[in-house]
Amino acid sequence: MAIPVISFAAYSGSGKTTYLTSLIPCLKDLGLRIAVIKHDGHDFQMDWPGTDTHRLAAAGADTVAIVSQKKFALIQHSPPSIEDIAARIQDVDLILTEGFKHGPFPKIALYRQASGQPLAVPADACLAIVSDVPLDVPCPVFPLDDPKPLAVFLREQLMQKKGD
To answer: What's the CA gap between 65 and 127, in Å, rounded?
Structure first.
């Protein structure tokens, strides 16, 4: 069975990373193993000039992997799809993505009234919404300042999927 993937969708600067850093410990407290796939709208630099991995890539390697006793990183110069990335992840109960609002996975929208931005995805396309104000929408709404209720909801969703 594939690992469930839930995408958190909101406009830049709305607090997705901040919310996820408070949600993840709540999910861990419920006994879940979590992976996160973060979208970066810029050309992030993980591989600095002068490092061995940078030198190997500059020499023409299309993919460079670096492995230590505690970490593993794979650097590809032609990024795979979000589905391919999720398929590579193992040994977790849930994969959260941040910033893939157009991806194929169920969405949880994050809404912050002060941002002045609307929901990043339509409410009727959301599994849930996290908001700092009450909303009249066709899906559950969870408080932005308390991630515990959403963590419980996600665990219940996982348990239902296992029962199917």
So the answer is: 35
Query: Which helix or strand (DSSP H or E) is residue 90 part of?
Result: none
Structure tokens at 92: 């977790």
Domain-embedded: residue 62: no
What CATH number corresponds to the domain at position 138?
3.40.50.300
Nearest Cα neighbor of 66 from 78, 54, 80 is 54
Please report whether residue 122 resides in a domain: yes
- Asked whether the beta carbons of 153 and 5 are under 8 A apart, the reply is no
Are 34 and 28 within 8 A, CB to CB?
A: yes
pLDDT over threshold 80, residue 46: no
In angstroms, the CA 114 to CA 126 distance is 21
Give this prediction's pTM.
0.87
Tell how far CA 86 is from the center of its chain: 10
Confidence bin at 30 (pLDDT 50/70/90): very high
Residue 19 belongs to domain spanning:
5-44+80-163
Structural domains in the chain (count): 1
Distance of CA 126 to the CA centre of its chain: 15
